[in-house]
Amino acid sequence: MEYDNYSIWKRHAPWTIRVAVAVVLFFASGILLLNAFSLTNKIEDTALAGMAFGSLFIFSVGLFFLLTSFGKMRLAWRAFCRSKGRYTKAEKVIVNERAELARAQVAAAQLAGDLFDGTWRPQNPPWDVVLGQNEQAICAANANYARFYGSDVTFTQSSGFLMGNPTLVAVGVLAMALGNKARRTQAEALAKEQWREQQEVLAVVTNHRVICRRQDGTWLSFYFSGATSMDIDSTTGTMIVQFPDTQPLMLGGTGGLFAAVAGVWAVRGQQGLERHPGLAYLRSLEQNQIA
Predict the structure, then answer these.
(1) For residue 174, how many other CB atoms are within 10 A of its CB?
(2) Nearest CA-CA partner of 249 in 230, 268, 263
(3) Helix pair angle (89-117, 280-290), 10° resolution
(4) Nearest to 252 by CA among 284, 193, 192, 212
(5) Each residue of 108-155: pLDDT tens digit?
(6) CB 80 within 8 Å of CB 72
């Protein structure tokens, strides 16, 4: 969908140039081949073979440009269809996700404005959430949740004693070695550090922390004051928080944006809302609404 914002020339140039080059090369290949046929009785066989090979090479290059143009044609065609409101199932999912993110960004910008002006009002948290002293619930929303850590993974290594034909024994040993290597590679990939536990959670945002209810019913608290860093990108709606004593947390979506705004406000106050680079996009939305 990256073609949607391109100009007409930038959208169609990739495939039109390739097709034009392919046509020129096909024409040159044909001219060279016809020229070779017209000189069959005048030049040596090696020269004819060289001209035929050159014609085939030029034709192959032209075929390469023609085949690579089809993918660019499809991208341009899909961009045209989207401009007319015709989307595939996969594109509809992307459009809906972008629309949901846009709504979340507008809501987060409004929350930032209310916190900055001091006009926000505490909300009632879910009944099963217990707030601490001087803690007030700001809002609650769904969020995309993930944690970053490695894992201990074990794998079974095949072994055995093989007897019989030497060739069959060699093939069996090789098969076991390849199988063990494949299982070891898979285990190493599963064990390395990566984003895990990816799921949608309910995020209750307060002036002290964000409380996440995972799909297994467990509530986890992440205090803003205990964070060592907050990496916020309001354009994509993500917030990555690192802690000294637990795995990094990533929140996205509406709840993630709300937590980002509240976290900056809790740690940096009005100055954070006014200057934090990760909230720049939300500030631009708020300014556009005022204008």
Answers:
(1) 10
(2) 230
(3) 80
(4) 212
(5) 999 999 999 999 899 998 999 999 999 999 999 999 999 998 776 665
(6) no
Burial 131-150 (b: 16+ CB within 10 A, else e): beeeeebbbbbebbbbeeee
Q: What is the pLDDT of residue 180?
A: 65
pLDDT band, residue 193 (cuts 50/70/90): confident
> In terms of Cα–Cα distance, which of 209, 190, 197 is closest to 250?
197
Strand order in the sheet with 219-223: 219-223, 209-213, 194-206, 137-149, 249-252, 238-242, 229-233
3-state secondary structure of 200: strand
Distance of CA 169 to the CA centre of its chain: 46
Nearest of 240, 234, 233, 259 to residue 147 by alpha carbon: 240
Q: How far apart are CA 141 and CA 30, in angstroms?
A: 66
pTM of the model: 0.68
38-60: per-residue pLDDT in tens?
776 665 667 777 777 888 899 99
Q: Is 6 exposed, middle or buried (0-12, 13-18, 19+ CB in 10 A)?
A: middle
Q: Which two tokens stand for residue 252?
A: 């996205």
Contact, 142 vs 255, CB < 8 A? yes
- pLDDT tens-digit readout, 9-21: 788 888 899 999 9
Phi-psi region of 123 (alpha: psi -120 to 50; beta: other; left: phi over 0): beta
